[in-house]
Amino acid sequence: MSDVNAIEVHELIKDFKGPFRGHSVRAVDQVSLQVKAGEVYGLIGPNGSGKSTTMKAVLGLIRPSSGSCSIFGRDALKVDSRNDVGFLPENPYFYKHLTAAETVRFYGKLCGMRGQALRQRIDEMLELVGLSEARNRPLRGFSKGMLQRIGLAQALVHDPRLVVLDEPTAGVDPTGSREIRDLILNLKSRGITVFLCSHLLEQVQEICDRVGIMKSGTLVKEGRLEDLISLRDRTELILEHAPEDLLTQIRNLVEVTHGAHLLSEAHPRTTLEDLYLDETRDHSKSAHS
Amino acid sequence: MSSFPKTSFFSPSRVSIIAASTVTQLVRMKVFLFLAPVALLFVALNFFELPIYQGPDTLVPEQQLRTHKNLCLGTMMFFTSLFAIVSVALIIPSDVEDRTLYTILCKPVPRLDYLAGKLLGVILVLLMAMLVMDFLLVVTLHHRTASISTDFGRYLSDLGFKEAEVARGQAELAKHGPTWVLQYGVMAHFFKACILAAVALLISTFSTSTLFTIAAGVMVWIIGAFQSIARDGLFVDSFAGETPSLADKILSTIISLIFPDFQLFESIADASVRAQEILGDDILKLGGLTLIYLAIYTVLSWFVFADKEF
Hints:
The complex is a heterodimer. By secondary structure, chain A is α/β, with parallel strands linked by helices. Chain A has helices at residues 51-59, 100-110, 115-128, 144-156, 174-189, 201-207, 225-228, 244-255, 272-280, 283-288; strands spanning 7-16, 25-35, 40-44, 66-71, 74-75, 85-88, 162-166, 193-197, 210-215, 218-224, 237-238, 264-265. Chain B is mainly alpha-helical.
């Protein structure tokens, strides 16, 4: 695996100018993050926290007011950097007049794919996202979940090293959501880097190696998921072959409760959801109340 | 796995992919349905006598054919110009609103390729529509010319003209039928529609609504049709023979640079209706001028679009 980070965001600031030279709004403020090649990184935060703006800056859809974004060491604003990126926007809409196969073909061609290689790749992608049966159906008749899946197919058609997913399971039923989760894990197993934004914290917890939590345009917490959700002020012990005197004391306590067994003591964990809510809670409001 | 193949600054191949997709999009949107009323009008014109025509003795037959051509070319010009503006105004903002543009620009597609592809796609559909309308025009005009020529021949024979004189008269009349000169008029209107599509492309790069793009495009169309007359009237008093002031000259030049001048296109179309001789050089000049306008408006669109954030 290359030493170059798949994504490198360095002190990103993005200001949006107000109308008629009014006050500008800072959507992203001094955000720095790195996504290593091959890992699954989740960016979470409440609506308006700057996740999408950060994602768009990574994809070169917006120009940073200051700071920089790079993809595998290449400036994200350069078109070349997109050769290795697949992107699935939230609630994607594709050309409704195209069929599923035509849609994947169109995006494959845009990436320079042609001929037999492209035809084979279209079949593979439709198979991967479970749309082989619907390959000749126009997208106008597709459900939200099917559109999401065709979105994934187009994002992966050129075999990118990095896949950026914005709410990949939005509007998808639990089964479809599980399939997309499995697909992301499959990408991870193939060494493909995944950068995703999601509100489904349970899913993020399940699949992400590292997460970043954004609030009001800043990255308030970032790191390995395991580290973030461990509560270090508590200790969990699993007692086995413990000294008899210690065990006796514990047993004495346990024995007063009929049928109870003390098996372990360890760092208890919070959930990612609790961590998220804690980090994004408006502390000023809670202080007043 | 790939590792940053160099993406060319401009790729005709990518442009053609986007153009082909645009053609498919417009065709499947059933935009060619607008040809139905055009066809109906052309056919109707062919079978119904115009009120001004009461027979060969009341109106010169050439005038009858000129009126037919004028109405047909006017209809073609109106529909293609409107189609050029509306189609561009519909497809680019809808790509932004539907976020389809995100998925395209997140592929290795330079923004110039996207704009050029969309414009080329619309121009190709315009060309197809123009060819269909042109075919209808030629067929109906051929029928009309044959009918009027027969009437005219009979009329001249009744007046006692010799057969050779009748044939000469009919040959003169045939010049007002479906000739190559008429095709130059059709080409002039096609070129004009292409320029309007490029203008709509420029407007749609900074406009946030389809309605504004259409309204502004129609305004440019009207200004383009009358700007040379307006410039002469406002800035140069040609009747009084006055020399325009420097300010007038600058303002006049600015207007002519911002808005396309369709006077030359109209002149060629009018000449084709009147069956006047049109030099091949004039058509080449017109084609060159069209290419220059297309290049200017596409590059301007790119300047605006290159820094646009989504």
